[in-house]
Amino acid sequence: MKSWDENHVRARISEKSARDPERQRFGAATHRYELGPRLPEGEILAFEVTHGIRLPQAYRSFVAEVGDGPAGPFHGLMPLTTPRPEARGPRAMDGMDGMDDTDAVDAVDDTDDDQWAVDDEWEDDRLPGRLTEPFPLSGPLPGPIGASADALTRGTLTLAELGCGIHHRLVLNGPRAGEVWQIDADWGGFVPVNPGFRTWYADWLEER
User: Fold this and answer.
1) Is the separation of the CB atoms in 65 and 2 below 8 Å?
2) Count of beta carbons in the 10 Å neighbourhood of residue 176
3) pTM
4) What does each C-alpha distance from 165 to 77, 161, 189 come to in angstroms?
5) Phi, psi of 188 (to 5 degrees)
6) Of 1, 38, 171, 208, which has the maximum CB count within 10 A?
7) Residue 93 DSSP symbol
8) What CA–CA distance (Å, rounded) separates 57 from 2?
9) Cα–Cα distance between 206 and 201 in angstroms, integer?
């Protein structure tokens, strides 16, 4: 029995896209309400075997039965097995209306490293042994955490970027496995924000 109704998910995404033709909603210029194909079971299993993990069921079934992003919360659901296509142009120009061309290009150059840190996070997640390491927290860690952030994200998978170095991560093991946590190393700390991937994605899907 399937865990997700692919037709319903894709229909709701199409409705959201139709209501936002100019891609003005937060993150829409990045994910563009586009949802890629489902991942083959063999590809998902190979990822799990390579990294010594079992993906939380709600997330695993989504990429197997619906699609592997990017349409999703914030700047979009990150892909599981292959890097996302470069989307620098639309994303980097967000909020730069009214600038002349020279100022806009300078602004993009100044912020590019910060804006696209999520791609570095994606690569770091896939370093050998990182995903299988135990998730080190048993409860929320509010407030600035600075340089210790890297050690705290072991055993988690980046789901989406919110901007300004803030990310949502899926916990892969331990008593908090399956939960979605938000990491904001400079200000907000590392705290749970949703009990699971299903409600995390469904909340975005159903919002108007």
Assistant:
1) yes
2) 18
3) 0.86
4) 16, 7, 12
5) -90, -10
6) 171
7) T
8) 11
9) 9
Query: Residue 148's pLDDT is what?
Result: 79
Read off the tokens for 149. 């952030």
d(CA 107, CA 62): 36
**Residue 16, both tokens:** 């959201």
State the average pLDDT over residues 25-53. 97
pLDDT digits (tens, 9 = 90+) for 168-177: 999 999 999 9
Compute the distance between CA of residue 108 and CA of residue 148 in angstroms, rounded to an integer: 28
Region 111-136: mean pLDDT is: 84
Alpha-carbon distance of 125 to 118, in angstroms, equals 10
Within a 10 A sphere around the Cβ of 61, how many other Cβ atoms?
A: 17
Interhelix angle for 197-206 vs 57-65, to 10°? 50
- Cα–Cα distance measured from residue 151 to residue 136, given in angstroms and rounded to the nearest whole number: 8
- Residue 30 or 96, more confident: 30
CB 179, CB 196: distance < 8 Å: yes
pLDDT digits over 54-69, tens only? Answer: 999 999 999 999 999 9
Strands across the sheet with 189-194, in order? 156-163, 166-171, 180-184, 189-194
Token digits of residue 53: 């993990």
Per-residue pLDDT, 2: 67
Q: Round the CA-based radius of gyration of the chain to a whole number and report it.
A: 17
The whole-angstrom separation of Cα 134 and Cα 143 is 22
Dihedral pair phi/psi, residue 141, rounded to 5°: -125, 85
